[in-house]
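Bumping with the actual sequence this time:
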Amino acid sequence: MTNGTKPSRTLRFLAGVRDFWLILGIALVVLFALEGIYRAQQAIRVRLGAKPDSSAFPYHDTPWFKALQADVAKSDSRFDPYRGYWPIPLHTRYVNIDSSGHRLTVNPPSVNAAHPMRRLYMMGGSTMWSLTARDSATISSLVSQRLTELGITDVQVTSLAQRGFNSTQEFNTLIQEVSRGRKPDFAVFLTGYNDIATAHAFGNDPGHTYIERQTQQILDRGRAGFGGRVVSLGDDSELIQRLLRLVQGRPSSGPAVKRDCTKSAVYFRNIVELDALVGREHGFETFFFLQPVASSSKKPRTKWERAMGMKEDLVECFASYDSVMRARPGLNYTSLTGLFDQDTAAVFLDEPHITEDGNRLIANEIVAVILPRLRLTEGAGAPKARR
């Protein structure tokens, strides 16, 4: 009787295991299907909802812009312990990133190429990285082009800008370069928007990054056991999160927090002062530019720019940043928030990103500010450039 019972229990156990995995598999298939349907209907609602007339978009009928967007979408990054992330190499038609993670800057051939070159670093977030421009029309490439036009042929321009970086990440990038012996002769920073946006995302508390919550979520999953990691997959399900909000009576999004840049403006200035301090200690000059954004510009707005609307609290934040920066003399600081005020052409593609023509105007303004210092130090380590 005992011998006859054991096989029966074993078979029942195996059948139970089979049924468990079968039910789990079916449940996962159903869940994935429902998740896909939920996301699809959300996408359709967004597409059918009120939105700006696409024909008003400055590049709506520009083939290369669609190709550029596809190239940008191919870019990826690796974990970086000091900056959060850093790009990996990419080679496409319009976006090229070298083995050091630097986006290609098109430097014209120099007549002084056989002699020591002065280094000019370009620092910032996606606006300086030039998210909406081809390699040849990034701000860094256009600065290099303009310098050559003015006869400055002993300056090698390198872009250290990265998408999404704020002033803290830019500072960490600078000290990484300096610590490894790659000191520049000049460093230019074009920044502001990402500091405001990341502080606002964390209740107006400065010093955070865009990927902070995502990184923390990954760390939390790593600490959990197998069961915890399986359960945590629900964090990525928009459908499950929606159902939880309904059950718990939570709104789809938290209450709107008005931007208040009182703390982040001071934090921003402190980081700028640290950049300048590193420059003085290691013998290079730093220049800081507060970037233009759509809301703070007083330019005559095109149909597309009007459709974007205007964020008054963002205007107030940029004014606050400008105020605290001007209160500290001795910094090479310039505000570009009014650069396009008289420009009737389309410039802004979204709040911080601009057209290639807009990049050229920013590049020309940067060169106009730094040119006297470049002229003054010309010949230090390199022959005089031709006039």
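The tokens above came from a reply further down the thread. The beta strands are 77-80, 84-87, 90-91, 96-97, 118-124, 155-159, 186-191, 285-290, 333-335.
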